[in-house]
Amino acid sequence: MAGRLSALRFSVMVVVVFLGVVASGVAAGADPKYEAAKKEGKVVWYVSMLDVDTAEQVGKAFEAKYPGVRVDVVRATAGVIYQRVLQESQTGVYPNDVFSSTEEGHYVALKGKGLLEQYVPVEANKIIQRFQGIDPENYYQVASVGLILITHNSGKVPPSEAPKTWKEFLDPKWKGKIGIGHPAFSGYVATWVLALTKLYGWQYFEALATQNPQIGRSINDTVTMLNAGERVVAAGPDLTTLKSKNKGNPVELVYPEDGAVLMTAPSAIMKRAPHPNAAKLFMDFMMSVEYSQVLAKNGGTPLRPEVTPPKGLRPLADVKLLRPTLEEIKTGIPEIIEKFRATFGV
User: Fold this and answer.
1) pLDDT tens, 179-207?
2) Quick one: residue 316, left, alpha or beta (phi over 0 = left, psi -120 to 50 = alpha)?
């Protein structure tokens, strides 16, 4: 009897060990992209939709989740990275895996040139519903959401005196005190200019030019202007401004009564990505809770509904939003860039 029990115990142990090995093998092979990505070793990410520090944090969070796959972050303004991609493709060089611009028109153009890869990321159906399926053909996905707001140096302009509408930028008291970015370099700024042109006509910017604004390149430059006291009011981004405020800098956000400009910044895999599996894994990561947690930690709107937005941001449902259509972005931005250069002389 004792011999039979011992034999039974041994048989059970063998089965348990076997099942454990099988289960382990299934778990290890559950995501073949990860195993293939580890062999590729890295993913190269061209990004304009986040500041350098936040983008680096995204890279570190990805590397923590997927050890053995490095993220090479290449950060520049939207116009610069887009031109870089075009120039590289014209010379037959394809070093970039994932492209994250702030201007949706870039993706329409790149798709038309056959430079983007179709891909539906894992958990793409779990982000906030209004941002799902931005491209019905799945060549690109929303990877960041932001607002362009009125911002100000709270040490020099009390909240009660800050502009409440974009129209108030034209008040003579703000002459020489306004900071903005440049639409030729920043997708955020280009969309803001387009949205306000639609709202008030080009005469708004002709009047704004007489206010002698300081013009940077990236919209993030406005945060630097306010922190330094070079300008006291600006058209600025919610994420970078709130992130700066949370570090103790004297900057504040104002939700314009005539509308905040909504930015939906996409990401896509390049058609000839040198690290295609790592690129797919990175796109998957952008749909994840961990990615949204990094956004929220840095003052950005999380894409996943289960991640709490940062303190200081209003729910989008409570904000009056301005957003040009895709067709308006595609056809209107090249025109307004030229008009901006002519009107502002830059």
Assistant:
1) 999 999 999 999 999 999 999 999 999 99
2) alpha
